[in-house]
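ligand=adenosine-5'-diphosphate
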Amino acid sequence: MRVAILSSEAVPFAKTGGLADVSGALTKALHAAGADSFLITPLYDQVDRGLLSGTFIDDLEVEWRGKRPRIPVWISEALNAPTYLIDAPHYFARGKIYGDVDDFERFAFFCRAAIALLRRLGDAPEVVHCNDWPCGFATVEMRARRQQEEFFANTRTVFSIHNLAYQGLFKPADLWWLGFSEYTSDFMLKGTASALKAGIIAADALSTVSPRYAREIQTPEQGYGLDWLMRARSDRLAGIANGVDYEIWNPETDTDIAAHFSLDAVAGKRECKLDLLRRFGLPEELDRPIIAIISRLVGQKGYDLIRQAAGGILDAGAFFIALGAGAREYEDFLQSWHDAAPNRVGIYKGYAGEPLAHQIEAGADIFLMPSLFEPCGLNQMYSMRYGTVPVVRATGGLDDTVQSYDVATNKGNGFKFGPYSAPAMLDKIREAIYFYTQPDIWVKIQRNGMTTDNSWSVAANKYLELYDEIAGAGQNQVQSSR
Ligand code: ADP
């Protein structure tokens, strides 16, 4: 099975969130499962040039806005499968991955270039796996190309939704010069053009990143105006929970943390806790639980609840450590909380890169994810591996991957609350802290988490099944809107 994975971000090259972890890890896991997988992603200015092996070609011709620029493509062997990086500094040397008014244009170009590259890479892939709205353009273009070009006749597309809330909106008038005006109706969503919607319509199969989120996005509450489409295409929608790359997230081998630890030798975790307290300038009170959060600072992640419950969290006796970048209002809240309680609240505002995220996972006792919605969530799974107990809201992938601890049966790897409310969250935090003060029980909850298998091999096999379903299908067996 030859599979091209297209993504706007991928570890270890560039990352803003979970999409990057998933794109890198899935490419590796598919390869390990025997597929001929490879990744195509932009060459941003922040990509560590040490990861590149050299230029693969320097003359990729891309039809773009009436011209045919020739651009270089780099190759990297940083994963176990090849990664090709599209080098277009005009679009990708911006000091950031997203956030410019022409993002839709930048990623439409990326998609066009990626498809041009497929023709230079030998045999056509059986599956082009597109991720989130930046790759929606590729799904639409592949649908057209396979009707026009023999080369792509047997190529099918999977479109994965990592977060339905990001819809890649732009003015419909721009479709014309981007070369997509023929497909305007696929893009149109409430008077504007959406690269996400077009990607969903044009794909041969859809997936999203957890079974529960696959159900949630078919409801008006969580469908972001697209629930009708998700229901209409539900026979083609798979919910496949993300995994964890245990080569990267493993407390026994992690080179970023102060001391190694494992199920049978947990002493190192205490050293990691001490290291974490020092890093955040907090007093070395090792018996006080650390509650941590690492997330983009956006409404989705539940910061409104944390703001409402701030006093209660400290009253419960915990340290609070937050790493996050994003909305000003939440950064300001974190700053004022820290200023009011500098001995209890440690903060890092900004995108810290990988080492600090690993140090927090290793040193914290409790990991908080009070998300309003959460397609999959990765940190709760990283936490479990590091003996850090997740307290999460029962939504999306958080509900699928965390099982509530039940003292009667001694089963469960975390704590879950249902209503999106500060009191419900605080109750669960208090419950977790109660068990934290009973080391015999706490160690059992930690062990339940550390032995939970969230490895990628399970997910990779489910993706391979999905690819198999569409790859063999003849043109007319593949359900498509046109
Ligand atoms: P999302 O994809 O919605 O951002 P996930 O939980 O799926 O949420 O993945 C988030 C990933 O991004 C995790 O690997 C997390 O450690 C990382 N991350 C988020 N914010 C930061 C930050 N400010 N600094 C470092 N890593 C971060």
